[in-house]
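Slide 14.
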Amino acid sequence: QGPDRPQEVSYTDIKVIGNGSFGVVYQARLIDSQEMVAIKKVLQDKRFKNRELQIMRKLDHCNIVRLRFFFYSSGEKKDEVYLNLVLDFVPETVYRVARHFNKAKSIIPIIYVKVYMYQLFRSLAYIHSQGVCHRDIKPQNLLVDPETAILKLCDFGSAKQLIRGEPNVSYICSRYYRAPELIFGATDYTANIDIWSAGCVLAELLLGQPIFPGDSGVDQLVLGTPTREQIREMNPNYTEFKFPQIKAHPWTKVFKPRTPPEAIALCSRLLEYTPASRPALTPSSTSCASPTHDCPAVETCPCCFNFSTTELSIQPQLNSTLIPPHARSHSAASAHVSLHLNCTPPDRDQNWPPQSRSIVFISGGRDTLGAVCGHEKV
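Slide 15: predicted structure.
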């Protein structure tokens, strides 16, 4: 935000915590503040446009991992330059949390599905309002603090500011979460591809496994053979293609018997073949905003309702739905509020979820500035 200000930052205790085609991610400790950070080191390949820094500098949201600093470093080879993004460190991912339950032969309690999806929808509503499409929504890119259940969207390496009429590459997004228009090779897609991916994440949390785990789009035919009109909306070049005629599988048969019907209904709305038929995302999609719903928050949940002025201006007609009466005094304003959440991370306690403990968040405008869990700052 604002002009660059050179700043000397020293860090220690460096260790590799992730790597991939993008580069390497390190965990480190800032010497001055003793805070843990993540450093994403990416080779600047002249053949490809790197938009990640440009996009991350304009984003400011409590459900998006924050860019703290950035710097460039030289590689071992001549003319090799690396971009280093210093980011907030968040210890877990929704993928690993889900895998924990899977190994225990259970699924994530619906409470956590609601809270995670609520925050994912909130982050997507914000970036889409800024014209940014993430293009790689998947559980691995949803960081979560197991102490607070706060989720942060990360990895904007594939993200792009979409401009109407400007073509985009279709080979984008990870396999299990690719919208059908991408599989059809569309290049004029919209941010609705993120909405499809979010639907895949929701379905995966409910099922305990990916809903479309195959190598091709044939898996998506569980929704039935798309109509000619649906194909035209995805990519008009495929209207003459002969698809196998498959009857849609009832959504109630896709999920386990005890899956809440409202969760199944939401999946069916998000996983629509026609991109324009997918709903515009707002946090209210999860029904978590209602104080009568069984959310982890006992009274108020600042990590859910600390809407910024920017967010409240996206669809102002929905504000009365988004913010329950007990939280309206906290939205876009400073406040101290109490929240009761399960605080033990799943990898520390097999008896998940543990007993609730009180967490006090200090919520200020856009960002949650800090939290105290017991006597430890988190």
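Speaker note: The first helix runs from residue 52 to 56.
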